[in-house]
Amino acid sequence: MSDEIMKEMDEGLGIITLVASDIDGEKFWAYVDILPSKYNDFLAVQKGDTPYKLTDFGDILKYGLGSYEPPAEVVAEMAELYGTDPEFQDKLKNDVERQIAAMRAPK
């Protein structure tokens, strides 16, 4: 997708992501609304060891300290407000694996 299209998407869309890591040795979780034009950069920086600021990639919608997992009431609130699905990544992974298996199956 072109950079121009991605920047246009920034005006009306966001990719809500649950991030979990450590800040100064303390566990945290955060729901972040990542700008589409910055999503690939966000994924790349997450894979590395270089510190980064979540706000460089979007808006922090909700966060907490002391755990990698948000409380159940926050998960429910995010689902209600933004339509997030805490099972999305697992469902997507399973769907992709099923489709790959179907493509590889003898016909």
Which keywords apply here?
3-stranded antiparallel sheet, 4 helices, globular
Task: Characterise the protein shown here.
The chain is an alpha+beta fold. It has one domain. Helices cover 42% and strands 24% of the residues. It starts with a helix and ends with a helix. The mean pLDDT is 88.
Describe the secondary-structure layout.
Layout: H1 3-10, E1 15-23, E2 26-34, H2 39-47, E3 58-65, H3 72-82, H4 88-104
- Low-pLDDT parts are none
Shape: globular
Mean pLDDT: 88
How many strand units? Answer: 3
Question: Concise description?
Answer:
With 107 residues, the protein is of the alpha+beta class. It is built from four helices and three strands.
